[in-house]
């Protein structure tokens, strides 16, 4: 069976269209991965910031008590 030029052209166009659609899906998935990663980094930064704030408050409480005791003496 011999393929005509028109049929070959249509086949090539269909393959290009299929590859283009696949590229869109890959781009969409990559975009979603970047969004999830950015969200994870943001949440991690918030948790670290909160931990540092709590630790700083604890240090302030301990240091503040020592300063008050020294001032009373």
How would you explain this protein's 3D organization?
- There is one protein chain.
- This protein has 73 residues and is an all-alpha fold.
- The chain has one domain (1-70).
- Helix content is 93%, strand content 0%.
- It is built from 1 helix and no strands.
- The model has no long low-confidence stretch (mean pLDDT 74).
- Keywords: Signal.
- Residues 1-30 form the signal peptide.
- This is Lipoprotein.
Give a quick precis of the structure.
This protein has one domain (1-70).
Helices, by number, come to 1
Number of domains: 1
What distance lies between the first and last C-alpha atoms, to the nearest angstrom? Answer: 106 Å
Low-confidence stretches: none
User: What is the averaged pLDDT score?
Assistant: 74
Approximately what portion of the residues adopt beta-strand conformation? under 5%
**Strand element count:** 0
The biggest beta sheet is recorded as: none
Query: Helix/strand-derived class?
Result: mainly alpha
Helix content: over 70%
Instruction: Tell me the quaternary state.
Output: single chain
Shape: rod-shaped
Write down the Rg: 31 Å
In N-to-C order, the SSE pattern is: H
């Amino acid at each position: 069976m011999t393929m005509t030029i028109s049929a070959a052209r249509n086949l090539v166009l269909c393959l290009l269209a299929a590859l283009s659609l696949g590229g869109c899906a890959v781009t969409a998935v990559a975009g979603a991965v970047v969004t999830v990663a950015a969200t994870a980094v943001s949440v991690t930064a918030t948790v670290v910031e909160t931990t540092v704030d709590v630790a700083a408050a604890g240090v302030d409480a301990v240091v503040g008590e020592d300063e008050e005791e020294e001032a009373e003496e």
